[in-house]
Amino acid sequence: MTYLLNDASAFAQEAVLGFAAANPQYVTAVHGGVVRSTETPAGQPALVIGGGSGHYPAFAGWVGPGMGHGAPCGNIFSSPSASQVYSVARNAENGGGVIMGFGNYAGDVLHFGAAAEKLRAEGVDVRIIRVSDDVASNTRENHRDRRGIAGDLPVFKIAGAAIEAGAGLDEAERIAWKANDATRSFGVAFDGCTLPGAEEPLFHVPAATMGVGLGIHGEPGIRDIPMGTAQEVADLLFEGLMEEAPAGRSGRVAVLLNGLGRVKYEELFVVYHRVAERLSEAGLTAVAPEVGEFVTSLDMAGLSLTLVFLDEELEQHWTAAVDTPAYRRGDLRSLDAHAERVPRKEFYTPGEEQVPEASSESQTAAASVQGLLERFAEVCATHETELGRLDAVAGDGDHGQGMVLGTRGAVEAGLKALERGAGARTLLVHAGTAWAESAGGTSGALWGSALTAASRALSDTSAPEEAEGVRALHNAVEAVQRLGGAQPGDKTMIDAAVPFARALQDRFQAGEGFSAALESAAAVATEAAASTSELKARLGRSRVLGEKSLGTPDPGATSFALLMTALAEHLGSLSR
Amino acid sequence: MTYLLNDASAFAQEAVLGFAAANPQYVTAVHGGVVRSTETPAGQPALVIGGGSGHYPAFAGWVGPGMGHGAPCGNIFSSPSASQVYSVARNAENGGGVIMGFGNYAGDVLHFGAAAEKLRAEGVDVRIIRVSDDVASNTRENHRDRRGIAGDLPVFKIAGAAIEAGAGLDEAERIAWKANDATRSFGVAFDGCTLPGAEEPLFHVPAATMGVGLGIHGEPGIRDIPMGTAQEVADLLFEGLMEEAPAGRSGRVAVLLNGLGRVKYEELFVVYHRVAERLSEAGLTAVAPEVGEFVTSLDMAGLSLTLVFLDEELEQHWTAAVDTPAYRRGDLRSLDAHAERVPRKEFYTPGEEQVPEASSESQTAAASVQGLLERFAEVCATHETELGRLDAVAGDGDHGQGMVLGTRGAVEAGLKALERGAGARTLLVHAGTAWAESAGGTSGALWGSALTAASRALSDTSAPEEAEGVRALHNAVEAVQRLGGAQPGDKTMIDAAVPFARALQDRFQAGEGFSAALESAAAVATEAAASTSELKARLGRSRVLGEKSLGTPDPGATSFALLMTALAEHLGSLSR
User: Fold this and answer.
1) Which among B32, B146, B157, B23 has a CA at the least distance from the CA of B82?
2) Is the pLDDT of residue B574 over 70?
3) Dihedral (Cα; A508, A510, A513, A518), 10-degree rounding
4) Residues of chain A below pLDDT 50
5) What is the enclosing helix (H) or strand (E) of A224?
6) What residue segments make up the domains of chain B, in order of their start?
7) What pLDDT was estimated at residue A540?
8) Do B3 and A301 touch (CB under 8 A)?
9) Fewest CB atoms within 10 Å of the CB: A418, B52, B79, B414?
10) Domain at B1-131, CATH from 3.40.50.720, 3.40.50.10440, 1.10.579.10, 3.30.2130.10
11) pLDDT at B360 over 60
12) B512-568 pLDDT, tens per residue?
C-alpha cells in the first residue's frame, strides 16, 4: 500500500516537486513536469519522455545529459494532460524539434498527440515514438500495437544517446523506432499495487499462482499459472522472449531485469543468476545488463525481463554515457558538451502564450471564428442534458457537461486572444488549448486537437480562402482520427466526422462553394450520427473507447453533427 | 514476502553470484563475497565493507572506484563469517592495509573482528570502523555504541573517496570515524519484512500506527505512535535529527532519505518535499542529497532520514566521483587512476593458505602446540554432554557440540600444517581459522580469534620463550574481550578468562615459572567459572549474549576453565 501521503489528490504533484528539490543540478519543475535545469545546445532535438506517475525512475528520473530533455508527469497511472505535455515540450524545445516518447497506451497517445498538434501548429517539428515492447499484449505481427513496459528504458536511452551524439530529428526518430522494434519484454506479477489513499490493491493474484503478462498500471497478468521457483520464472521469461529473437541477430543483447516495486534486489539477482546461464547457453552476450528497479508500478510485486537485440549502432548508443538523477553510466568525458553545465535561467510558464502580430484581415476573420465559438457554446448548452443522457447509456454521462465546459473555455480564451489582437490562426490555437483544459477527458482532448489542427490551415496574416476552410476542417478530422485511434464503425465521433470530411471535400471539389458544401456535409454528419444507434460495436477494435452498448446514437458523433450544423448555419448567415 | 527463490538456504549465495554476473566490469565473486574485478593501485588501503545480505545496494553494490574494494556478503541479515570476511579482505588487500567498515551489530563486530585478528597475525594492518548512526538505539553520549543503519552509505562513501584521493590507512581511518561521528539517522517502520522461504513477516506494526526507530534487520521500531501524514513523518524525522545538530555546524549537510524496500520512490519524494522545506527553514543547505533505496531490509515498509553535518573535508569526499554498480556520481575524470581499468587476473581462494618457512625450533614448538590441541579435543569430547546441558538452560544447547567440532577442526588443520612444515605461529593461525569454521556460532568465532591472537606472540623462527607464552594467552583473552564485547559479570566466557589472565600475569611477574603460574591461573579460572552460577546477569549489559538465566554455571566460562586446566596439565607434563 501507499504509506506516505498528505492528500491523495496532490500526491503526484508533491512527488514531482520533491523530486526536483532533490535533484536541482539535473532538473527544474515547470508546469506539467520537469525539464533539464542546464542549457542544451541550440538546434538539438528535445527528447520529451513521459507518462503517468507511479513508475519512478521512469520517466522524470531519466532527464539529463545523454537521455531525456524533459518529462511531463501525469497523475498516478494517468497520462499527463495535453497542456502538461505541451508545457514541458515547449520548455525543452530548443530549435531542433521534439521527439515525444511514451508507452503505447490510449491516454498517452491522445494527450501527447494533442500536444504535438499544438506544437506543430506553432511551427515545431514533432515526432512521436510509442514504445511497444510487451510481448504479452499483442501478436508478433502487431508489435507496434503492443503496450510499452520496461522497454521504455532502453528505447529512450538509445534515442537520447543518438541525440547526444549529434543525430538530427529524422535520424533520432529512425534510431528510436529501430530500438523499439529490437526490444521485447515479458513479465509476471505476484500481487497488485495500491493507489495512494486506497485501502485495497487494484487486484490480487490468486495464492500460489502468478499472473503472466503483467502491465505496469496495476493491470494483472493475462493468465494465471502456478507459482514457479526463481529458476522457472527466469526460464519462462527468457523463453517467451527468445521466441521472437530475430533470425539475423548479432548475438549481443542489452538485458534489463526490472522489478516492479516489491520484488527486491536480492530476488532479482537470484533470477538473473539463471538468466545469465540461459543467455550463455543461447550463445548471447549480455551487453551492460541492468538489474534493478527501472519502470515500477508503485508497490506492485512482479518483474519483467527485457532483451534488446543489438546491432552495432544500437549497442553504441546503449552503452554511451548518460548522467541523469536515476540513471548514470559510462565515462562522462564523452559528454563534452556538458563539461561545464550552465544553469538555465529562463523557463516557459503557461499564461504567457504568445500572440504573433496579425493583419487586420486575419483579425476580422478571428472575430468571425470567435462568433462561431460562441454559437458552439450555445448549442452545447442547449443540448447538454440530451448529450449526457446518450452518454449515460454506455459511459459516465458527462459528455454534455464536458462539451459545455469545453466550449465555454474556448469562448473565454478566444475573447482574450481577440483583445490582444490575435489573428484567426492564433485564436484557434488558444481556443483549442482552453477547450481541452476546460473539458478534460477524451472528447475535450480530441476537440482541442481538432481546433489546433484546423488552425494550421489558416494564417495570422491574410483572410482565409475557402480552400483553406476546407483544409482546416480536413485537418481537424484527421487529427481526431489520428489521436483517438478509432476506426469508422467503432461508434465514436469518427463515425460522423469521417463521412462529413469526405462529403465536404467531394462537394467542394465538385465546384460547390464552401458554404454550400459545408451545409451538405453537415447533413451527412447528422445522418451518420443518427445511424450510430444501429452500428454494432466492434469489440476490441477501438483502443480508446472500448465496447459501447447498442441502440442509442453515440454522444460524440451526435455532438459533432450538432456543431457542424451550427458551423454551416453560422457560415451561411455570414455569407448572406 | 520473498516471491522469487529456488532454495532458501542458497538464496544469499545465488544472489551474490547473480549480482556478480550482472556487473562483471565492477566485481568478481570470490569466497565470501565480491571484490573489484579491476586492478587497484599498489599500496592503496583496501576498504572492505559488508554485513548480512538483504540490504542491497548495501554493501556489494558499492564496490568500485571511489568506494569499496570488496564486500563480504553474509547470509540474509547475518554477519558474514570470519572466513568470509578474511577471504574478501585478503583478496582486496594490496599492500596498503585494510579498513573494515560495517554497521555496529554484535555479530559483525565479532566476525569482522576475528578476521581482523587473523590478518594482523599475518602482518596486515587492519582498522575497524563501526558505523553507529541510528539515534534511536542509544543516547547521544554513547553515539559510537549505536546501531548502524543508512549511515553506512555516507560513511563508506566518504572513506572510499578519501582513499581514492590518496589517504593512507591512518588518514582514511581518521576521516571515516569523523564521518561516522558527523552522521545521524532516524527512521520509522510501517510493516515488517519476510525472510526468504518464510510465510510470515518478522513482525507487524499495529494498524494505523508506525514504529519509531526501526532497525534494518527486521527489528520493529522502539515505540509505536499513531500513523502520520507524509509531512508529519518528515517533521518527526527531521526534528529527531536536529536535536543532535552540532553547535558549530557549517550549515551544509549531506542528506539521505532512504526507503527500506516497500515504501516507493514517489512516497519518498513527497516526504522529501517537506524535508527540503525544513532544511531551508533551518538555514541548512542540502549537499548532493540522495532520495531512494540505499540500505534496504528486504521488503520492509519504512524509511529513514540521514543527515551528515559536513565540514569542508567531509563535503569534498561526499561529493567526489564514485563509480560502482549501484552508486555512481560525479565526473569520473577525477578518477584518473581508473581511466584505463585493467581487469585483474589473479584472486585468492581459500585452501591455498601459505605456510611460511619455519625453523626447526619453531617446528618442534608447533608439534607441542598440536599435542595441546589434541588434548583440547579429548577434553571437549569428554565434557560434550555436560556443556550441552549447561547451555540448554539459557541457550540452544549446542555449546558442547560446538566445542567438539571446533577442537576437532583445529586438530585436523594443525596436522596438515605440521605436515607442511609449519612453525608454531602459523600452526596456531591455521588451527584458529579451522576452529571458527568448524564450530560456527559465537564461541567458535571467539575461540578461533583467541588462537589467532595468541599466535601473534609466537614466531615461526624461534622456540617460544616463557614470556611469549604469557603474552600469547594475554592476547587470546584480550581478543575474546574485544570481539565479544562482554564485560565481567555478564555471565560469559569472560568471567573465567579475565581473572585467569590477571592471575597468570601476576604470578609470572611475581617470579613463578610459566608452568606454575599457568597452573594457578587455571585454578582461578575453574573457581570463577563455578561462581558464574551465582552471578546475576546484568540485563542489557552484554551486547552479544543478552540475558542469561541464573543458577547454573555459564557453559562458555566452564569450557574455558576446562581447557586452561588441560593446558596447564599439558605444559606440566611437557616440563616434567
Assistant:
1) B32
2) yes
3) -40
4) 536-549
5) strand A223-226
6) 1-131, 178-321, 360-575
7) 37
8) yes
9) A418
10) 3.40.50.10440
11) yes
12) 999 999 999 999 999 999 988 875 444 333 333 334 445 688 899 999 999 999 999
The pLDDT tens digits of the residues spanning B248-296 come to 788 999 999 999 999 999 999 999 999 999 999 999 999 999 999 999 9
pLDDT of residue A215: 78
Of residues A55, A69, A217, A570, which has the active-site annotation?
A217
HEC per residue, B227-270: CCCHHHHHHHHHHHHHCCCCCCCCCEEEEEEEECECCCHHHHHH
Q: What are the residues whose beta carbons fall under 8 Å from the beta carbon of A265, sequence distance 6 or more?
A: A259, A291, A292, B15, B56, B57, B61, B296
Architecture label for domain B178-321: 2-Layer Sandwich (3.30)
Q: What is the DSSP letter of A27?
A: E
All residues at 6 or more sequence positions from A10 whose CB lies less than 8 Å from its CB, including other chains? none
Question: How far is the alpha carbon of A111 from chain B, nearest alpha carbon, in Å?
Answer: 23
Contacting residues of B for A296, CB less than 8 Å apart: 264-265
- Report the sign of the C-alpha dihedral through residues A312, A315, A317, A321, in that order: negative
> Residue B464 and residue B423: Cα distance in Å, rounded?
11
Spell out the CATH class of A179-320: alpha beta
The CATH fold of domain A360-575: 1.25.40
> Residue-wise over B60-97: b if at least 16 C-beta within 10 A, else e?
bbbbbbbbbbbbbbbbbbbbbbbbbbbbbbbbbbbebb
- What residue type is B303 in one-letter code? L
The amino acid present at A81, given as its one-letter code, is S
Q: Which residue has the higher pLDDT, B223 or B422?
A: B422
What are the two backbone dihedrals, phi and then psi, of residue B186, each rounded to the nearest 5 degrees?
-155, 135
Asked if ipTM goes beyond 0.90, one says no
- Cβ–Cβ gap A266/B56 under 8 Å: yes
Contact residues, chain A, for B263 at CB < 8 Å: 3-4
Look at chain A and count its residues. Answer: 576
CA distance B277 to A562: 52
> Which residue of B75, B270, B334 to mutate against A (max A Cβ within 10 Å)?
B270
A-chain residues near B281 (CB < 8 A): none
Determine the pLDDT at residue A338.
57
**Is residue B489 within 8 Å of B470, Cβ to Cβ?**
no
Tens-digit pLDDT profile for residues B130-151: 999 999 999 999 999 999 999 9
> What spatial distance separates the first Cα and last Cα of chain B, rounded to whole Å?
64
Q: What is the residue-wise DSSP string for B322-388? A: EE-SS-EES-GGG-GGGSSPPBP-----TT--------HHHHHHHHHHHHHHHHHHHHHHHHHHHHH
The x, y and z cell numbers of residue B144, run together, are 559510537
User: What is residue B544's predicted lDDT score, i.e. its pLDDT?
Assistant: 33
Active site (annotated) includes residue B217:
yes
B70-104 pLDDT tens trace: 999 998 888 898 889 999 999 999 999 999 999 99
| Pair type for strands A70-76 and A46-53 | parallel
Terminal CA-CA length for chain A: 64
